[in-house]
Structures are given as C-alpha cells and as structure tokens.
Write a structure and sequence with these properties.
Bound molecules: dihydroflavine-adenine dinucleotide
Organism: Microbacterium pygmaeum
Number of strands: 21
Strand content: 15-25%
Number of helices: 16
InterPro entries: Amino_oxidase, FAD/NAD-bd_sf, Flavin_amine_oxidase, Flavin_MAO
Cofactor: FAD
Pfam family, one: Amino_oxidase
GO molecular function, one term: oxidoreductase activity
Oligomer: single chain
Radius of gyration: 22 Å
Helix content: 25-40%
Shape: globular
Length: 454
C-alpha cells in the first residue's frame, strides 16, 4: 500500500563514498538518479559519532598524499585538513617484549635483521613497480605470484623471523587485515601498488598523513546534501530485476525503475540481493572468493595527551603486540588526547571470544607496553566493531582468497547488462580506501554516461 514508486535514469544502491560520488557525477551529466541506502545514515564505512562526549571516527579517517581523487573531493567540498601529530620518538616492541624508542624510518632491530628487511623491501618495491594496480592479473608472473601465500613467499626469502613478521604485517595485519597465510603474494603486491610502492605503505607519515577537520564522514554527508531528496535512507534493496531494457530495484517500501543500476556496496554483500534473473555463473563464483578482512579500531581518550610529555609521537607498532599499531589520534583543536590502536585478524577473533571487560583490559595492557601505565586509564574507551554491522560485515575491505585475484580480478568491475559495480574493494589506486571508492564511483558513472549517449 505505502510503496513509493520512482522512475529514474540510474538507481544507485549504497550511499557510501562510491555511490554518492557516482550519483553526483551522473546528475552533473544530466541524468536523474535515486540512491537507496539500507542504513538510516549515509557514509557506509565512514562514520563520525560522539561517544561519551568524545568525537570519534569509527571508520575511515586518514588521507595520504597520493590519493588525488579524495584530495580533490575534500578540497572541492571546502573541507580543511590537518596533520597527524608526529613529533618525538616512535616506539617498537621487540620479540622479547622490550620497548624501544626510535626516530626515522628504520626501527630498532639487529643490524642483520635491518639488512634483510632493507633488501627484501627493495625486492618488493621492484616487483610492485611492475604491477599495474588496475590490472595486477596482467603481469606475466601473476599466476605464479597468486599461487603462493604472502607468508610462504616471505619465509622463502629469509630465515629471520623478526624480519618476516615486520615485512608481513604492512599488508597483513595493517591493511588486508587477514592472516598472511590466507592471501597471495600477488594480492599483497596489489595492496602495495595501490599506494604507489611497498615503501609508501610501511611509511606511517605517508599512508596516515592527514585528517579532515570534523571527520572524514563529512565527504559523504556533503555529497549527499547536494543530492537532496534523491537519497533515500532506510531502504535496503532486496531484489534487483534486470534485463536489456533496464532494472527494477525493490527496496523496503520503495521501487525504483531505471535504465541502469550501480551496486555501490561491499562485494561480500551482493548475495544479500536476489537478482532476477540470477547473475551469470562467473559472478556467482567470483563473489564467493572475496571476503572481508577483520580489524578492531580501538579509541582511547585521555584527559591529556600524556605521551607527548614523555617525548613520544604516539606512533607505535610491533608484530608481537595484540595491538600491532597505534597512533596519536587527537582531534583538531582538542585539549584531550586520543590514541587509536588496531587489533587485526586472528587477534580480533581471539579477543571477541572474551568478555567485553577482559577484551578491554587485554587491549589497554597492550597499549600500555607502548605508552606506559597511564594508557590503562582512558576516560572514554570504544571499539569500532564493523564485523557485527549487517551492511558491512568486516573491516577494512574485501580481498580475494589465495589464487582468486588472477582468476577473477579482471571481471570484478565489469558490468552485467545494465548493472554496474563500484566500491573501494575493487579499486586499483586507492584500493581499500576512500580514494579508491571515489575513483570507482567516477568510473561507473562515466561508463553509464557513455552508454546512455550511445
Ligand atoms: P561503503 O561500504 O562505505 O558503502 C556501501 C553502502 O552500501 C553502505 O552505506 C551500506 O549500508 C550500503 N548497502 C549495503 N547493502 C545495501 C543494500 N542491499 N541496499 C542498500 N544499501 C546497501 N579508508 C581510508 O581512506 N582511510 C582510512 O583511514 C581508513 N580507515 C578505515 C578504518 C575502518 C575501521 C574501516 C571500516 C574502513 C577504513 N577505511 C579507510 C576504508 C574506507 O572507509 C572504505 O574503503 C570506504 O569508505 C568504502 O566506501 P564504499 O562506498 O566503497 O563502500
């Protein structure tokens, strides 16, 4: 009875950075749009909220200098950026649990381990330089590199366990957020190529460079504002009928008929939609070889940024710690200090088996190894738990299982009839990042504009 029926040129499923970018581009090209969003807010994996009086960026937040698509969008929307606090010493915890302070890029390991890390990094940079992030499967060794796990490849380069762990975690715990035996060398090289080089990826000052004043969710919020009534919240799309003539998207309480659709959601969620007729077998198979990584982003707010008084920058990491990396995440102009730590893959599984109190204790204990006992007494504590969000189901993003990238990667962005796909999880440059979401939103929109004119 109360079903709203709309007719538009393009229906966009998902009001994250990808979908909202696409919708704005399509409108600029003179096409009419409707964006259907399952949640009661826009932004998807970008979400700024106030928790116990602290403004926290629950999802994505950092911008790095190579991310032109995001940087342009941030500037065009009139948003301001600020740098992550980074004055003072960084901290590394070694295999025996000893805390070391250091400055510069190379962290304090034995000279032989340092040499091995430098040598393998050089080898990786050379391999990454040969990879086109938009077509990693096109490399002549793609299949070979996709058949070996990231862990197995590293272990074949050296017997130095500390070197392996430190090299592994840049694309493992820190990026794909999966155990390093579950994804391939090729997938790891794509992750690095998407940020320009392996060296860029391990350089916190590069990859975690700037934040947006007021939070990165302002990007989707402002993009949605421009679309006004064309964004519909609380409208999960349940069924998508498609044919050569166009599409019908059936959401809770709303039906949209359109010439084209863009599915701008994480690919692991495509199977929540009933496609009529079913998608081709290739898509059915391909989508089952993609899965979400899993990481807990931990926010701990203190009355003061106490670590700064000790001469610490807040930058801390260790492949031996529960929280493998942590940073000063104090908001712009905030007198209080905020630390952000990350707990990834199997560590995240492990701590979610504990009670909330035990989990908090274990995580704060780990942060105290970097910053001292004061870290155990935050005034606000919060864990971003994207694994339990129905419309995301993990963090940060999706990647192929071992061997899946060379087998299916080339088809991931290919439209099926009038149905197009856009998401950070299929980007080349900016893969798994907001920058990649924007790029994929632009790409899908430009494909549709071309087809609509043809
Ligand atoms: P996204 O998932 O954001 O949007 C998809 C939308 O589709 C969602 O709003 C969802 O509700 C909706 N949807 C799903 N199914 C639907 C259905 N059936 N019907 C209707 N709507 C549906 N990136 C970065 O650049 N810097 C960073 O620092 C970080 N850090 C970070 C931390 C954490 C904790 C997370 C979870 C993620 C990051 N990221 C990041 C990654 C970044 O947030 C992410 O890559 C993009 O925001 C993804 O944008 P998309 O639009 O592609 O998908």
């Amino acid at each position: 009875p109360n079903r709203t029926e709309l007719t538009r040129d393009v229906v966009i499923v998902g009001a994250g950075a990808a979908g909202l970018t696409a919708a704005n581009e399509l409108r600029r090209a003179g096409l009419s749009v409707a964006v259907l969003e399952a949640r009661d807010r826009v932004g998807g994996r970008l979400w700024t909220d106030v928790i116990d009086g602290a403004m926290l960026e629950i999802g994505g937040q950092w911008v790095s200098p190579d991310q032109d698509a995001l940087i342009d969008t941030v500037a065009e929307l009139g948003l301001e950026t600020y740098s992550r606090y980074r004055e003072g010493d960084s901290v590394y915890v070694g295999p025996d649990g000893t805390t070391h302070r250091f400055t510069g890029e190379m962290f304090p390991v034995a000279p032989e381990t340092e040499r091995v890390i430098a040598e393998i990094t050089e080898r990786l940079d050379a391999m990454v330089a040969e990879i086109d992030p938009d077509r990693p499967w096109a490399h002549e060794k793609a299949e070979e590199w996709d058949r070996i796990s990231w862990d197995a490849w590293l272990r074949a380069q050296t017997d130095d366990d500390e070197a392996v762990r430190n090299l592994a975690f840049a694309t493992g715990s820190a990026m794909l957020t999966k155990p390093t035996h579950t994804f391939s060398l090729l997938q790891s090289l794509l992750m690095a190529a998407s940020a320009g080089s392996y060296s860029n990826l391990v350089d916190a000052d590069f990859i975690l460079d700037k934040r947006v004043v007021g939070g990165l969710q302002q990007v989707p919020l402002l993009l949605a504002e421009r679309l006004g009534d064309d964004v519909h919240l609380g409208r999960p799309v349940r069924t998508l009928e498609w044919s050569g003539d166009g599409v019908t998207a059936i959401a809770d309480g709303m039906t949209v008929r359109a010439r084209f659709a863009i599915l701008a959601l994480a690919p692991v969620l495509y199977n929540r939609i009933s496609f009529v007729p079913a998608l081709p077998r290739l898509q059915h198979q391909m989508h089952q070889h993609l899965s979400m990584g899993f990481v807990i982003k931990v926010h701990a707010v203190y009355d003061t940024p106490f670590w700064r008084e000790k001469g610490l920058s807040g930058t801390a990491f260790s492949p031996y710690e529960l929280s493998h990396e942590a940073y000063d995440n104090t908001n712009h102009g905030d007198a209080r200090g905020t630390l952000v730590g990350f707990v990834s893959d199997q560590h995240a599984d492990d701590v979610f088996r504990l009670s909330a109190q035990e989990r908090k204790d274990r995580i704060l204990e780990s942060l105290s190894h970097y910053y001292g006992p004061e870290a155990k007494e935050p005034v606000v504590y919060y864990e971003s738990d994207w694994g339990s969000e129905e419309w995301t189901r993990g963090a940060y993003a999706a990647s192929f299982d071992l061997g899946g990238l060379h087998r299916y990667g080339a088809q991931l962005r290919e439209a099926v009839g009038p149905v197009h796909f856009a998401c950070s999880d299929m980007a080349g440059a900016g893969y798994q990042h907001v920058d990649g979401a924007i790029r994929m939103g632009r790409l899908a929109a430009s494909q549709i504009v071309d087809e609509a004119r043809a």
